[in-house]
Design goal:
mainly beta, seven-stranded mixed β-sheet, Rpf2, nucleus, 13% helix, flat, Brix
């Protein structure tokens, strides 16, 4: 993925009002490009609830069959994941899961909502979770798409062998998470050793 990047820009004109274009670049060429029309927009500051800290990594939720069935929506889902996923992290704490971006595909529209996660007391160890709308809020409609061929798309997401994690041999885990390693040794001749008193 070294020659791979993202772009997004907004525009507004009489023919295509409130336009948003999201795309992938691969090897200095446009790979996928999707044009969305913004029918309704509510900004973060227009919603008067508490906000998350800037740079908070969001949890992404996709609802609607179109995201799994229709190719245009599948590629849009892929673009949105790449756009919003943020940096890769090795550990997550429960209190850090405080921002949700929810995308719903329904009746030819995409409803994009942002929520803050509130952890409430529940009377047991696991807290009760409530979502409070934080923003932004957009109602989007799919306008035009430019999608790469399946072959080019597969080539663009192929991971180089040097980046693939090396498989650990002779290591196993049980149901409790204990790690076991197997060591191979040459056969020993135990007749040489004096055992007993």
């Amino acid at each position: 993925k070294s020659d791979w990047s993202l772009f997004m820009f907004g525009s507004h004109n009489k023919k295509q009002p409130n336009n948003l274009v999201i795309g992938h670049m691969y090897d200095y060429h446009v790979l996928d490009m999707i044009e969305l029309g913004t029918e309704k927009f509510v900004s973060l500051k227009d919603i008067k609830n508490s906000k998350c800290f800037e740079g908070t990594k969001p949890m992404l939720i996709f609802a609607g069959d179109d995201f799994d069935v229709t190719e245009d929506y599948r590629r849009l889902k892929n673009l949105l994941i790449d756009l919003f996923r943020g940096p890769t992290v090795s550990n997550i704490r429960l209190a850090g899961l405080e921002y949700v971006l929810h995308f719903t595909a329904l009746n030819g529209k995409i409803y994009f909502r942002g929520y803050k996660v509130l952890l409430k007391k529940s009377g047991c160890k696991t807290p009760r979770i409530e979502l409070e709308e934080m923003g932004p809020s957009l109602d989007l409609v799919l306008r035009r798409t430019y999608l790469a061929s399946d072959d080019l798309y597969k080539l663009s997401i192929k991971m180089p062998k040097s980046l693939k994690p090396k498989k650990k041999t002779n290591v196993s885990h049980d149901t409790f998470g204990t790690t076991y390693g197997r060591i191979h040794m040459q056969k020993q001749d135990l007749s040489k050793y004096k055992l007993g008193k």
